[in-house]
Write a structure and sequence with these properties.
Blueprint: E1 3-4, E2 7-8, H1 33-45, H2 56-64, H3 72-79, H4 83-93, H5 107-114, H6 116-132, H7 139-160, H8 170-176, H9 179-189, H10 204-225, H11 230-237, E3 243-244, E4 247-248, H12 250-264, H13 275-285, H14 289-305
Antiparallel strand pairs: 1-2, 3-4
């Protein structure tokens, strides 16, 4: 090999080696948590935004199971329209959280064992875990989010039963309270421009603070897009702020406590739950320290079974 002064020519370096510049094609919205939060807001409020869809079967089932007069055959026929979803629900019915000891072989048996409303909640839980809480690059985060939301749903229903607040929408609100987090992760996982090669999305730790800032309003936007009950939309949109006008919304206070209890019980997602907010909610609901501890203990039981 040719050399000059004992140094192979193939290894020669330019005089400006190490002092040049390199262009990094990082989108501007990833340069700071504030920019990420604004990117999420712009996307969520854009006329072109397409939120993740809930299958119509889940929405119809929630509506059907809340009717005072409903035939079991109508419910079964609705559920049988999506055989894969029905099979997943039957598998969930066999889990330690819902099992009553005897195997459940059919939807009729599941309806008889759990009741219509609980079965509807299980269908929604299954829909979320298989068709909404999924984003390439954020598999672990989505799994943790689904676990947190499930525990919060059970904790919310338990908290309602310690008050005079009707628990009709408690489980649903607990299950969906952080769906805005899922929406945000889906946005970060999506290509910024159609046709471009999409790099790996930013790490969850990099986007977490932006998600925490925006997820409450994002949950409200999804609830609106899914045309959920107005009470549910309201609660999802203020489950941290709590305040509706000059008053604290009682079910929002319940969801705030359930969020905190799920985190304390070992089903934490990020760092968005706050004891200060939970304490404020507890004061409004008249819960003592012992009651709060009982909520956490119940949530731990759910974590162990889920």
């Amino acid at each position: 090999m040719a050399s000059r002064g004992g140094i192979p020519l193939g290894n020669q370096r330019r005089a400006d080696y190490g002092r040049g510049t390199h262009r990094i094609d990082t989108p501007e919205f990833l340069l700071s948590p504030q920019a990420m939060a604004e990117h999420l807001r712009r996307t969520l409020t854009s006329p072109e935004y397409q939120p993740p869809l809930l299958p119509s079967i889940a929405l119809q089932l929630m509506e059907l199971t809340r009717q005072p007069q409903v035939r079991l055959s109508d419910v079964r026929q609705l559920l049988e329209r999506d055989s894969m979803l029905a099979a997943r629900v039957l598998k969930l019915v066999q889990s330690a959280l819902y099992s009553r000891g005897a195997p459940v072989r059919s939807l009729d048996e599941a309806i008889s064992l759990l009741g219509l409303r609980t079965l509807g909640e299980l269908f929604l839980q299954t829909v979320l875990s298989t068709r909404v809480f999924r984003a390439d690059g954020y598999e672990a985060a989505m799994t943790d989010l689904m676990r947190h939301s499930t525990v919060a749903a059970h904790a919310a229903r338990n908290a309602c039963r310690l008050t005079a607040i009707p628990d009709e929408y408690a489980f649903l609100c607990g299950l969906l309270h952080d769906v805005g987090m899922a929406a945000g992760l889906l946005i970060f996982a999506s290509p910024s421009r159609v046709g471009e090669r999409q790099p790996a999305p930013p790490a969850f730790e990099e986007v977490a603070s932006a998600l925490e800032v925006v997820h409450e309003e994002a949950s409200g936007i999804l609830a609106e897009a899914w045309q959920l009950h107005p009470e549910v939309r309201l609660v999802l949109a203020l489950h941290h702020r709590l305040q509706h006008g000059s008053h604290i919304h009682p079910l929002a206070a319940v969801i705030c406590l359930a969020d905190w209890a799920a985190s304390e019980a070992g089903a934490r997602f990020g760092s968005e739950s706050s004891f200060d907010r939970a304490e404020r909610a507890a004061r409004h609901l008249g819960f003592s320290s012992a009651t709060l501890q009982g909520l956490v203990e119940h949530a731990r039981e759910i974590v162990a079974l889920a």
